[in-house]
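Have a close read of this protein, sequence plus C-alpha cells, and explain what the C-alpha cells say about the fold. Thanks in advance:
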Amino acid sequence: MRIFILLAATALVLSTPSLAASPRTDTLAISPSEGWAAVGCTPDKLCVEIAPSERGCEGQACPNGAADGTDVSLQLPGGQGDPAHMLYRIAGLPSADAYARLWPKLIRFKGGLLVGVQMEERAMYSGGGASATTLHLIAFVPDQSPFEVLRVPQSSSATIRACFSERHMKQRAGACHDEYNFDATLVLTQASAAGWPVLRYRSKATSFPGHVSRSKDSLAARPLRQRDLVTVTDPRCSYQRLFRFTPQARAYVPDTPAPDCTDYTVP
C-alpha cells in the first residue's frame, strides 16, 4: 500500500486566502471516518482528507485519481468551477501493520502550504514490542506539483524483554523489560529562508532502567540495584535542529546533521 496526496490544484493561487503573508500554523479539527480514513479542517474550512485509494496509478503525479494506496485530498476554498485534482505519491507503507494518519497541523506561508502525514509502523517481539511514527511534510506551492520537503522521526516507543529466568529477575532487580521512548516536536520560528519558514525540531529520548541500549546485551551488564531503576534522558538523542528550505535540494536541511538514534526510532 502506498501513500498519495490529492490536490485541488487550480485553487492554489497566490491570491487565495488559503495562503498567509506571514507564516503561521493552523490546527486541523480531525473527524475520523471508516477505517483510518479521516478529514481534517482548519477553522476557515481548508480541509485535508486521507483515505484508502484504488489500484492502477503509476509514477509520482497521477492525474486521474486512481492509485494503489492512500489519498490525501487538499480542498482549498475559493476555487472556481470544478478544480483539476492531482494525485501525488509520498511513499509506500513500510509493512502490512503500518498505517497513515493526518498530522493535526497545517503550515501556511506566502509561497504555499505545508501538509503533514504521519506514518506509524509496529513490530512485535517475544515479551515486548515497538512502534515508531515518521512525519512526512509535503509542500503545495503554486504552479508546481506537490513534493516532499521533510521526513523526520516524530515519536517511538519500545519494550524489550530482559528476563528469561529467576536468576535474570534477581540480576535485574525485578525490572524485566528495557524501555525506550522518543518524542519530537516541529514548530515554526520567526525566521525565513528562501521565502520559506524556518522550522525548529526538538527531540527527547529516554530509557529505563538507566542508560540501556538495544545494541547491547542488558544481561551482560552488572546486576541492577534499586537505585538503578530510574528513567534517564539520553543527551545524544535529545537535541534541537533548525531546518531551512534549500532550493537546490528542494527540501528542508538541518543546520547540523542529526545523530543516529535508531535505538529509539526503528521498531
